[in-house]
Amino acid sequence: MAGNSRRRGAVRKTNKKGATKGSGGQRRRGLRGKGPTPKAEDRVYHAAHKRKLEKQRRDSGRHVRERTTELVVGRNPVVECLRTNVPATALYVAEGTNNDDRLAEAVRLANSRGVSIIEVSRLELDRMTGSSMHQGIGLQVPSYDYAHVEDIIDEAAASGQGLVVCLDNITDPRNLGAVIRSVAAFGGQGVIIPERRSASVTAVAWRTSAGTAARLPVAKATNLVRTLKQFQQAGFQVVGLDADGDKTLDDYDGTEPTVIVVGSEGKGLSRLVSETCDSKISIPTSDWVESLNASVAAGVVLSEFARQRRAS
């Protein structure tokens, strides 16, 4: 019968049904075990796993918002940023944008600085900027690399005549940029801003600082009061600017290592910050002028302290 031949190489066929002898190693494999039980957060069907994914998503979102780049839009702002050497990584130009002197200058400045020039569709630029009011051009600016508070304290203390400005309740980035420019101009070592409820070094601040933000360190303080106390422990006098101060700028000695604390034009210094100051000084002005802009006030005091130090 075919298939049952005894000749070499023949295949024996059988119609026998039912289990064959042995398990084929299945029982042996079943006794090996499956290893340690995974953590609840690693089991995809467990609620803890969903919570873990949600936390990762939130953390990832915060990280992106902190380190994301920013687009400066509009022809005049873009040209101004490029003129003042604001750090930039790319210049985006919408396809079909009408050329003019400002666009030509932006492209020329970007080329001279080695900034990539990327042509995109107008719809894509609308999506990137969240608006159609970009005038066909956008400059990508990287996020600012903040210094550490301790580094500014050490550098200012090592200089012998330390001069630092701390900002309290300053939310306008133009004021921040102007203060950075003044501190750099009058020999200061840095600017410190609160981590929350404060202006940050955005493209607007970069532009207002006229590029000095690239050289003068700016640090974020988690707790401004604690930071001021650190300066005091390092031998600095902490001076708050206040229209009702107990001293005036005319008779204050600013030759010692000093921290100038500037509050907003409307709110002034917060209570705890004011109480931490060693003294508060006012700037003499005409009677009918209520107060000075925060950045202007800081510039006036910095200029006077720099004059005193040159004369001493």
TrEMBL record:
Pfam families per the UniProt record, alphabetical: SpoU_methylase, SpoU_sub_bind
Residue stretches of biased makeup (Basic and acidic residues): 56-68
Disordered as annotated region, ranges: 1-68
GO terms, biological process: methylation; RNA processing
Stretches assigned to the RNA 2-O ribose methyltransferase substrate binding domain: 71-147
Keywords: Methyltransferase, S-adenosyl-L-methionine, Transferase
GO cellular component: cytosol
One Gene Ontology molecular-function label: RNA binding
Ranges of compositional bias, category Basic residues: 1-19, 46-55
Organism superkingdom: Bacteria
Transmembrane feature ranges: none
Keyword rRNA processing: no
SUPFAM superfamilies, sorted: alpha/beta knot, L30e-like
NCBIfam families reported for this sequence: rRNA_methyl_3
PANTHER family for this protein: 23S RRNA (GUANOSINE-2'-O-)-METHYLTRANSFERASE RLMB
Family, similarity comment: Belongs to the class IV-like SAM-binding methyltransferase superfamily. RNA methyltransferase TrmH family.
Protein name per its UniProtKB record: RNA methyltransferase, TrmH family, group 3
